[in-house]
Write a structure and sequence with these properties.
With 190 residues, the protein is α/β, with parallel strands linked by helices. The chain is built from five helices and ten strands; from the N terminus they run αββαβαββαβαββββ. The two termini are 22 Å apart. The mean pLDDT is 91.
Length: 190
Amino acid sequence: MSLSERNLKPRSITLHMVASLDGFIAKNDNTVSWLDGNGAVYEAGVSVSPEEAAAFVKTIDCYVLGSRTYEHAMELGWPYGDTPVVVVTSRELPQATSAVQFYSGDLRTLVDMELAPRYRNIWLVGGAMLCRHFLSLGLVDEIKLTVAPVLLGEGLRLFNGSIAEETWNLKNVVAYKNGFVELSYSSPAS
């Protein structure tokens, strides 16, 4: 798809998160080592080659993160490359790369005035509070929730009861060889 064709497409915000079977996105100490998997293999699942993963990541125009997710990404080794990243925070934080921009203010203004004019495929990847704010404002077009084959028992929930009831439309389900399952939903407004 050419740049001019991409600019004709309306902006889309995808909330992407990985959760345990019991709905947690991190342990109480904010660690996510449980995401490494347990080596189990689901034979009927699909696998994604490094080339396919790299090609997919290139379709993402911009990432939006909260400050704790940003700090965690820096600790783990910057996974976003040169793709633009907007960090929503009121704190002073070090800039990981020149592609990082910090934003503090109204989220609708961020989306309508800063993101939508420049980016089409925007991925919201954490944290939980920021994702809940985007959802409550109706700014999320798609949810890609990947469920990991682990029970944590306690931790940080993505959805903690603060979201209004709303039925989303199932778009796709993909089971992977590592036992993870990706659920894709589109907004009821779509």
